[in-house]
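Re: the 384-residue chain
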Amino acid sequence: QRPTALAKNLEYTMLRVHKIKLNPNQDQEIYFRKACGVARHAYNWALATWKRQYEVGEKPNEANLRKQYNAIKPVEFPWALEVTKCAPQQAIKNAGTAYKNFFDRLKKGLRDSFRADNGPARKGANAVPTDGKKIKLPIIGWIRLREAVRFSGTIQSTTVSLMADGWYISVLVETQDVLQAKKNHGVVGIDLGLKTLATLSTGECVKGPKAHRALGKRLRRLNQSLSRKTQGSANFSIAKAKLSKLHKRIADIRQDAVHKLSHRIATEFSVIGIEDLHVRGMSRNGNLARSVGDAGMRMFRTQIEYKTSMTGAFVYVHPRFAPSSKVCSGCGQLHDMPLGKDTLSCDCGLVMDRDLNASLILEYAASSAVSACGENGSGAALAA
């Protein structure tokens, strides 16, 4: 449902998700845990049933499994009737798509979530009603939200999930609210790095939070504390919860920085040049793995691509094996640039930081790509 380019005054809808933290009371939290348990049971039941039917020569599918589950639920699983019907139904659908991994059973506490509506919206009506900072879910009723749903439109579905620091709800909305491009600032090249989050061809260096490094000492201390606890004990659960909360805090800090940068780039520039980085391969380097993970490089590319699909900006992805930091942006000469060398010195007299030089190469490549396919073909003109 993402548009490839936007035209002015064009009306269209797209699906966007707003994830909000919930403030449930004690009874509501008990209900959430029951619903997660029912979803987990239905998922594992579907995997086991699918495997058994497949081994005897039958051709199982998730639609038939849902019918079978509904038929036996009142007799064999009456406790499943205490939660919304969408919890087990969506879990069985998920099991259908994940059948190839049926040996990897879903464990308690791992990705605990359940669908929390009575089916998709129909005829423009919301799947669940909202009222400011409240949302009404089936059976459990009204629940407080930390913030109101951000997007205006029709709510298609909701999913409640348990994170390290509490319960969250993901609201899928069909909306016309999209990012709007600001004044057209032309072309920019972006070099992602480990020392800085990003270096722009404008000369700007955006520092990353490096949350993993900043909180590394506390992370090691909590890991050591957890290793000393007896698995399954109350103290083990407390230590595990503390460690999980710290991991989530690190991830939230990283995601916040990448979201803010990608939002600014997508709305301020009409042509953007980035590299096709092999992040997984870089992560295999023992000396760089932690820094690569802390930089959020893959996350940045994902966000810049879906945000520019809303603003109409054109994203040029530089080929993975084409040199960027090794090529002089002044004369095009190829240099030997090992990882420890931060400055490029060329025979043409250019002396420049390697990351800034790489961003200028990406800017030039993006401009050339626009010239080759034309402004209309690139979508650059639409962001003005």
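The chain is about 40% helix and 20% strand.
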